Amino acid sequence: MVKHAGQVRKGTSIPYFTHVMEAMEIVSRMTEDEELRAAAVLHDTLEDTKTTKEELVEAFGQRVADLVAAESEDKRKDRPEGETWLIRKTETIEHLRKADTEIRMLALGDKLSNIRAMTRDYKVIGEKLWQKFNEKNPVMQGMYYGELANAFGEDETLRETPEYREYVELYTALFGKT
Asked: Average pLDDT for consecutive 10-residue bins of the chain (178 residues)?
């Protein structure tokens, strides 16, 4: 949490750590695996902080570090995020289609937290929601979140969870009109 100090959720003043705690809570409902739960809390440290994988190995062990790395996007920090959005999201979908249940579970915890926040924000600010993101086209966002639903649904274990069903319900409510 110290690594995310001062960070806020996109377009809000909500401390970023609320997202990683919610992702961990979601993952905790699906597994009792403490290392997987730890990876859920840490899932954005490699992507969004200056933390290295070696630091994660030292502090949390190899398995946790490997789980976090497997859930991390290559942000291509040398290029503008808006320019790489489609590349990064396509890579995420391809990765999840081949990933094991643990990695998909981490991703589901992250993305369910995101879509919950998006749904709440949409109820308050409507179409202005999309202006918060690097990809401002709701159709593109809908395609991405829909492909995530498909990737999660390909996993028989996840498909049976209340978390997956909630994700699909929120996806349908948020993007059903796009």
From this structure: 58 77 97 97 88 95 96 78 87 96 97 96 95 94 97 96 98 86
For 15, list phi and psi in degrees, rounded to 5.
-55, 140
Is-contact 161 155, C-beta < 8 A?
A: no
Q: With a threshold of 0.85, does the pTM exceed it?
A: yes
- Count Cα neighbours of 32 within 13 Å in the Cβ-side half-sphere: 0
Q: What is the pLDDT of residue 139?
A: 96
Residue 81 carries which side chain, given as an amino acid letter?
Answer: E
Question: Tokens 């990765």 belong to which residue?
Answer: 95
Q: Give the integer Cα–Cα distance in Å for 26 and 46.
A: 20
Q: What is the DSSP string of the chain?
A: -GGGTT-B-TTS-SBTHHHHHHHHHHHHHH---HHHHHHHHHTTHHHHSS--HHHHHHHH-HHHHHHHHHT-----TTS-HHHHHHHHHHHHHHHHHH--HHHHHHHHHHHHHHHHHHHHHHHHHGGGGGGGSSS--HHHHHHHHHHHHHHHHTSHHHHTSHHHHHHHHHHHHHHTT-
Q: Phi, psi at residue 43, to the nearest 5°?
A: -55, -25
Could you list the active site residues?
Answer: 47-48
Q: Is 26 in contact with 109 (CB distance < 8 Å)?
A: yes
